[in-house]
Design a protein that fits this description.
Radius of gyration: 19 Å
Order of helices and strands: HHHHHHHHHHH
Strand content: under 5%
Number of strands: 0
Number of helices: 11
Largest sheet: none
Helix content: over 70%
């Protein structure tokens, strides 16, 4: 019920006419803040953004790309698998010329997630690594860097590349601590246990 009230309030505000640069920018900011505050609410953000799906003809190019970026971000947070990289490649093409460092970082991270979902680990790791090249010295960047390195570690885990996984877990933990997120830092540290367990099995059963 609270979810419906929130969505109603957002769009009632729009219909009355707001001056948050534009009604679209207001919705984008609201959707982004909702999914950042709680990942479980990513589907609420999608529902909010869906209300704008057929209004893109009224958006500027910048707003269209922001919509696509945020929708992709919400999909990823809601564990909705990507089936294509086409929209994200358009987003990257735009933000390469117009976006902030964080926009570029997020765009390449989401492209990496798309390839992860399409079972192309090599491409996923490639674009995750490109994403890290846009890092900045602030909390927002540290939070995303922790996620990126955690994703890379997961992919190495799937390939039984233990040393690479351990390295990525350490980097993820480091950035989580820099962001002040001790829970994620501890989680990254704890995930190393399975990697060490795999090393033990390799030593005991080298020809397995």
């Amino acid at each position: 019920m609270k979810i419906r009230i929130l969505i109603y309030c957002v769009f009632a505000f729009i219909l009355e006419g707001c001056h948050y640069s534009s009604k679209y920018d207001y919705v984008f900011a609201k959707a982004d803040s909702i999914m950042e505050a709680n990942q479980d609410d990513a589907k609420i953000a999608i529902e909010i953004l869906d209300k704008l799906k057929f209004q893109d003809s009224n958006m500027t190019e910048s707003q269209k790309m922001r919509y696509n970026l945020l929708y992709s971000k919400a999909m990823n947070k809601a564990y909705i698998e990507f089936k294509s990289d086409s929209i994200l490649r358009q987003v990257i093409s735009y933000y390469e010329k117009n976006g902030s460092q964080y926009d570029k970082m997020m765009s390449y991270y989401l492209l990496g997630c798309a390839y992860r979902d399409m079972n192309d680990a090599i491409s996923a790791i490639h674009y995750f690594n490109i994403s890290t090249s846009f890092k900045e010295n602030n909390r927002q960047s540290f939070i995303l860097l922790a996620r990126i390195h955690s994703q890379i570690a997961d992919l190495y885990n799937e390939q039984a590349l233990v040393q690479q996984e351990l390295s990525e877990r350490d980097i993820s933990s480091k950035y989580a601590l820099l962001a002040g997120d001790t829970i994620d830092a501890i989680l990254s540290f704890n995930l190393k246990a399975s990697a060490y367990s795999m090393i033990g099995r390799i030593i005991m059963y080298p020809n397995f």
